[in-house]
């Protein structure tokens, strides 16, 4: 019979665990609910500020992108104008050269010349605004469609530049050239405007043909192109690009009726004079945000608070802006709050379900344990052995978890290669430039990466198996297999790899050696990105025989490893990256493979070297392996 103490112990074993399991489950559920509720309230407090800032950054980004586009076109206007008129002159030259070659054996030279003059007189471009002219060696006008005055090319512009010097030089060297001067526009009064011309010598009739365009006319076409572009830029339902000149005239707006009218005529905002003056003042000084009341919100035609970001182009006297309405932000806030509430309800629901299930499982487990303890109360040693078995299984599970982490680490690069290649093939397909060679090459890389993923599983399954067999392979082939796997990502990061590998065959574990190379190369790639290395990015791989041992050196130009962390780079889980970017297992696994599986050594140091007359700094990994 059991004594009272034994009965009390059995009662404790039987009823105490369920009681504490239920109590702890209830307490944890309450704590999790309270903590999540507090987090939800804090999120709702900050969501308005975050969304407003997010919307401001979005409209700023759109305006800045439009401004950069305008600046690019503006800065390259003269270069694009020169290319434009040169192309037109070459087209005219090809036309008259074709006429000459067609009729030179069937018509007189005078007849051909009259055909050429007629063709040039009638030839137009740029909506019939552009025309061509031609002069003979005596600088007489032989073609000039818009005027009969043949003396104006014997004058000088307002800066004293000769109008005919460039034509003379074209006759002298019988080539082609640009000319820049200031001259009167047709029907534009006495003001001279900058004009760029292009001349080309036509040897068959000893003439120079050419054309010219006024720079401000070309800029006007550019401005029209920009305004057409701004009509396509929008964000959401009610955010759009608007352009106003410094005279307050609307040049671009979602409401077409506004274009060509002043801000005051459109009465677009409350206190319109004050608002438009403030916006133009901000634009003239650079850029900035401004909040005001717009009288008519598009789609509703009711007054609404609006926050706009504006930026000025002082060369064109333009204000470029985009705004976001407060009610749109409130709508987004309500949507996000609703989403947060839904997630919170789902979270609570899941917590309750998990808590109930876990409580039931723990109760069943506690009952089971209690029964075992009750039945085996006098078999203490057997209980200890069972606990030891449980600890052993837990250790095996921990090892399995580590191996799964290593597999995930090794899969990252091949999966990235597959994603990069497939994305590139899809993009080229959409652009209509996908060719068979690129498709074949991409398919091979995807297949090879997939095979590597499968091989990685086999490698890690046997990772701690001492019975794995070595095989003979050519070292250079192992490097080539490695580079095939990382090629796509490295090319997109502008990383160039140089190899200096002796022709030799070694007897080792090829796949594990490839794993080592990938880890080191990926470490170099991460260093380039983390250190924001600009310009040339190099990795040098050298392999040679040194005293009957294989020596492999891999160095980069990524700036090196800080001296205070250099001794720790091979430690497990040590990483300088954020948790999302690295686990710290790569170089640790590299050392484990080399030392425990390949019977080699690995070290790292910072190295300074010269390449193509420039000095570079980077990490130098040295690997010593038996042949």
From TrEMBL:
Q: What class of enzyme is it?
A: transferase
> What is the membrane topology here?
Multi-pass membrane protein
- Whether ATP-binding counts among this entry's keywords is yes
Pfam (any one) = HATPase_c
Q: Where is the Histidine kinase domain?
A: 406-627
**What's the domain of life for this entry?**
Bacteria
Q: What protein is this chain from?
A: histidine kinase
């Amino acid at each position: 019979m059991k004594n009272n103490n034994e009965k009390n112990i059995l009662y404790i074993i039987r009823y105490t665990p369920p009681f504490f399991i239920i109590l702890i489950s209830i307490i944890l559920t309450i704590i999790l609910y309270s903590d999540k509720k507090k987090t939800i309230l804090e999120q709702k407090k900050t969501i308005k500020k975050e969304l407003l800032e997010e919307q401001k950054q979005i409209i700023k980004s759109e305006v800045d992108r439009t401004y950069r586009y305008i600046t690019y076109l503006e800065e390259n206007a003269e270069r694009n104008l020169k290319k434009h008129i040169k192309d037109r002159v070459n087209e005219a030259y090809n036309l008259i050269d074709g006429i000459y070659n067609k009729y030179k054996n069937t018509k007189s030279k005078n007849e051909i010349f009259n055909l050429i003059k007629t063709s040039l007189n009638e030839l137009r471009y740029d909506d019939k605004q552009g025309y061509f002219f031609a002069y003979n060696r005596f600088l007489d006008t032989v073609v000039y469609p818009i005027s009969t005055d043949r003396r104006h090319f014997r004058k000088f512009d307002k800066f004293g530049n000769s109008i005919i010097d460039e034509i003379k030089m074209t006759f002298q060297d019988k080539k082609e050239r640009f000319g820049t001067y200031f001259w009167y526009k047709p029907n534009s009064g006495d003001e001279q405007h900058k004009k760029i011309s292009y001349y080309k010598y036509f040897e068959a009739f000893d003439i120079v043909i050419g054309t010219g365009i006024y720079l401000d006319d070309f800029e006007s076409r550019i401005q029209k192109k920009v305004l057409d572009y701004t009509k396509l830029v929008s964000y959401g339902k009610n955010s759009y690009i608007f352009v106003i000149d410094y005279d307050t005239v609307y040049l671009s707006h979602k409401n077409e009726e506004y274009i060509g009218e002043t801000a005051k005529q459109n009465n677009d905002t409350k206190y319109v004079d004050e608002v438009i003056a403030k916006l133009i003042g901000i634009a003239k000084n650079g850029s900035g945000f401004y909040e005001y009341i717009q009288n008519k919100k598009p789609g509703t035609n009711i007054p609404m608070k609006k926050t706009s970001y504006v930026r000025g182009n002082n060369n064109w006297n333009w204000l470029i802006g985009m705004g976001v309405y407060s009610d749109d932000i409130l709508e987004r806030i309500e949507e996000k709050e609703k989403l947060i509430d839904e997630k919170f309800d789902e979270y609570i629901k899941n917590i309750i379900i998990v808590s109930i299930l876990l409580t039931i499982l723990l109760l069943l487990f506690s009952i089971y344990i209690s029964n075992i303890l009750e039945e085996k109360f006098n078999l203490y040693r057997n209980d200890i052995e069972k606990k030891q078995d449980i600890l052993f299984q837990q250790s095996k599970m921990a090892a399995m978890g580590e191996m799964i982490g290593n597999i995930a680490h090794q899969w990252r690069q091949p999966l990235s290669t597959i994603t990069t290649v497939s994305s590139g093939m899809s993009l080229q397909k959409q652009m209509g430039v996908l060719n068979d060679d690129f498709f074949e090459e991409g398919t091979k890389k995807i297949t090879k990466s997939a095979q590597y993923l499968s091989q990685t599983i086999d490698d890690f399954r046997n990772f701690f198996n001492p019975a794995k067999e070595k095989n003979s392979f050519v070292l250079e082939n192992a490097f080539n297999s490695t580079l095939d796997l990382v090629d796509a990502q490295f090319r997109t990061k502008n990383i160039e790899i140089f190899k200096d590998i002796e022709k030799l065959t070694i007897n080792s574990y090829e796949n594990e050696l490839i794993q080592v190379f990938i880890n080191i190369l990926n470490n170099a790639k991460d260093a380039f990105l983390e250190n924001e290395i600009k310009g040339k990015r190099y990795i040098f791989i050298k392999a040679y025989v040194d005293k009957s041992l294989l020596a492999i050196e891999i160095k980069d130009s990524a700036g090196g490893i800080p001296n205070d962390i250099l001794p720790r780079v091979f430690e497990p889980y040590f990483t300088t990256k954020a948790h999302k970017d690295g686990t710290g297992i790569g170089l640790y696994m590299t050392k484990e493979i080399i030392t425990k599986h390949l019977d080699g050594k690995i070290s790292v140091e910072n190295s300074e070297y010269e390449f193509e007359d420039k000095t570079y700094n980077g990490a130098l990994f040295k690997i010593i392996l038996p042949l």
